Amino acid sequence: MPEIPLVPVHWHFPAHPTSARRARHAVAESLPDVVRPHLGDDLGLLTSELITNAIRHGACREDEDLIELVLWPADGHYWLAVSDPGTGKPQLAHPDTDCESGRGLLLVDSLATAWTVRPRPTRGTSVIAGLSFHAAG
To answer: Which residues share a beta bridge with 62?
Structure first.
């Protein structure tokens, strides 16, 4: 009989700056105890960066637009998908050293085992990032 996968954890957050902290805590609380010490900090950082980018670049008004966050384990990874209603395609930037922002996806690129940007079937964009995890056995 095949192993039945875990059901993904799913949240919606308002497009408001306080949502990054709330999302980071939600992800940390949902991780199994065996995973939290190994991936908790990196998943928290990825969550914060992706939620912040979605709020800044993919949402219009905080009272109408929601940011969707999904977390699930699959194929030796923990995956995050952050979706917003925007139509833009996030791309890596290489800002000058005196710029105060623009490094979020560089951080995602250096932390994540793999990441991509996908359009949503109905409206919006998803950024999906995964971190490798192999439990010590």
So the answer is: none
